[in-house]
Known about the structure:
Blueprint: H1 2-13, H2 26-34, E1 38-43, E2 46-54, E3 73-81, H3 90-104, E4 109-113, H4 119-127, E5 131-136, E6 145-151
Parallel strand pairs: 3-4
Antiparallel strand pairs: 1-2, 2-3, 4-6, 5-6
Amino acid sequence: MELIAKCVQVMQTGGSDQWDEHYPNREIISLDIERGNLWVCEENNAVAGILVLDEHQSEQYGKIDWTETQGPHLIMHRLAVHPEVQGKGIARRLSTYAEEYARQNGYSSIRLDTYAKNTGALALYPKLGYDRRGEVTFPGRTANFPVFEKVLEKHGNSEA
């Protein structure tokens, strides 16, 4: 929760209302942990970043023109990097982990959304091979949420 509090502080100082005291809160993070969906990246025995992976798509995703229509799809939520270690490749490492996890578990794509005011994420995801597929809106937010997708290569058994 300390990592989230620090991220909220930095976001709000930078003019972003993506996260606040209501989201993500202790109850949401506790559910992520209980469900086994929260992954942690540690640096020097401290939590450097977190990531949630599950199959829960927001209903707003239904209006997006996805490239990969055959599932299952892994959804990336709540990627956060502690402000003290931002810029050191933690988000890239967490994203790479998500892709490896998705491939190992038979997912056809990874989908995610990020806040239109989150310039770091908007720059990062295209560099990692994610295609912007549209935008969704969520109640109570002043900006839209660009939606991204990365189609994963199929690793089938080919006979030579």
